[in-house]
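Human
Can I borrow your eye for a moment on a structure tokenisation matter? Give me a protein, with the fold worked out from its sequence. Write it directly below this note and I will take it from there.

Assistant
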Amino acid sequence: MAKYDPDLSRLFHALADPTRRSILTRLAETPAPVSDLAEPTGLKLPTVMRHLAVLEESGLIATTKQGRIRICAIVPEAFEPARTWLDDQREIWEGRLDRLDDYVMKMMKDRQK
């Protein structure tokens, strides 16, 4: 069985929601106040705040307070565990597909004999 990593699970949970992915896409451009992030979603501020809390708990964003304004910024290095896991999975599946290809090619050669 695969080793369970709660941090990786939190990261993928945060990335699973399209609203949160949209917020991350916006934050990839530049840090932004919560109100600017909420505006294009069409969601009420408390709902957006819950999405931001999930992103912050997963480590994907960091927030700071400037007076009465909360500024959110993306944390690019927080994506590394997901990238590493996906790279590992790609390597496993490419190996499996290469072995399958080798097997099929061998079967085809054997059939031609």
Observations:
- Strands lie at 32-33, 61-66, 69-74.
- Helices lie at 6-15, 18-29, 34-38, 45-57, 80-112.
- The chain has five helices and three strands.
- The longest strand covers residues 61-66.
